[in-house]
């Protein structure tokens, strides 16, 4: 039995050269979204064997679910450098760098050709259900770092890996409707404000969704404030825009050092805290901030941010560049963090508004990350029952 004791230690990434034992095993990347595929491109660029496991039936399966939404960040921030090198070597022409693609365009013009190049290195329909160390549950210590990772798919198939880059995103685990505080997304927030000011949309603030029930008139949503005061509205349709949370359950047998609030690593939490940062002010970061006590396991991409809505693809690309450099034993490159965002911030609402003026909106809404809070409107606690038509 291992008898390790456990104080809350800061996590130092271990400068392990690729292990002799297990060195022949591939690095497994979970998820073929923008960041998982960027990780694959960096691994390919460094000649490291890898396999991408994707639960969906296409690369960018989660992006496809918001394919109709136009990104606020133009192409030049949405393409990873290693992916670009691979694609250009194959004769690909980058789309107009100033154009913000929709999710569907991001797939058609970038993710799908990249996935095609990576070929059999990507397995579709391969949903990871559990990860551990071969022969080690979370408690056993002696010899743990030399044991390969064991990855189980929901088909029951098991695979081994020398390291795991978990880019499985958060899109499939939305926050519950009842969570208080709706994380507004920049451009959406700006447009909503205009609609609120024109009186087209009625904004209820201080609305703590407590219960939802079907009535003959529609759906009644009941708010109960911390004071106990209740109010209600009856609506035709509820769209829950309550954000996402990471699902760490399949890594439950690994030793993770998670921030108790955000669910990111504890080292990353202060850099992405939405109370302090919008996405444009998050500093570049890499393997140092992403390391867990479990060497060789890295959550990257939007999953790495936990509940913080401040993620940008560009930041995720820098994460995987650094992590893959560390896996290659190139610690100098791993620790040199580059992130080249414009001073105004790629997610500033002014950029998003300029894009809207230029290309219009794909659906009447645009994606965008937290920047401008909606203005508060006074709620008459007795005014329940009205619907918003
Ligand atoms: C509407 C919207 C607009 C956005 N606009 C922008 C923008 O303009 N600019 C920007 O920089 N960012 C934007 N983002 C944020 C972010 O860049 C994207 O969410 C991006 O897709 C995150 O990439 P990812 O690879 O980390 O995760 P995802 O794209 O979520 O990919 C995760 C992949 O993992 C797969 N997967 C999940 N679970 C498993 C499992 N158990 N086993 C195997 N595979 C699994 C999924 O099927 C999916 O393909 C936006 C996000 C949303 C939702």
Task: Give descriptors for this structure.
single chain; 389 residues; alpha/beta; FAD/NAD(P)-binding domain; 2 domains; five-stranded parallel beta sheet; three-stranded antiparallel beta sheet; 11 helices; globular; disordered N terminus; disordered C terminus; binds flavin-adenine dinucleotide
Mind explaining what this structure looks like?
This protein is α/β, with parallel strands linked by helices and 389 residues long. It has two domains: 27-173 and 244-335, FAD/NAD(P)-binding domain (3-Layer(bba) Sandwich); 176-242 and 371-389, no CATH class. Helix content is 25%, strand content 13%. It has eleven helices and eleven strands. 39% of the residues are buried. Bound molecules: flavin-adenine dinucleotide (FAD). Residues 30-36, 53-56, 61-63, 66, 69, 71-73, 127-128, 167-169, 171-172, 250, 301-302, 311-314, 316, 367 line the site of flavin-adenine dinucleotide.
Task: Give a topology summary.
Elements: E1 27-30, H1 34-45, E2 50-53, H2 61-65, H3 75-78, H4 81-89, H5 103-118, E3 122-123, E4 128-133, E5 149-153, E6 158-161, E7 163-166, H6 186-198, E8 209-215, E9 218-224, E10 230-235, H7 269-272, H8 287-290, E11 297-299, H9 313-327, H10 331-335, H11 349-359
Parallel strand pairs: 1-2, 1-7, 2-3, 7-11
Antiparallel strand pairs: 4-5, 5-6, 8-9, 9-10
The structure holds flavin-adenine dinucleotide (FAD).
Residues 30-36, 53-56, 61-63, 66, 69, 71-73, 127-128, 167-169, 171-172, 250, 301-302, 311-314, 316, 367 line the site of flavin-adenine dinucleotide (FAD).
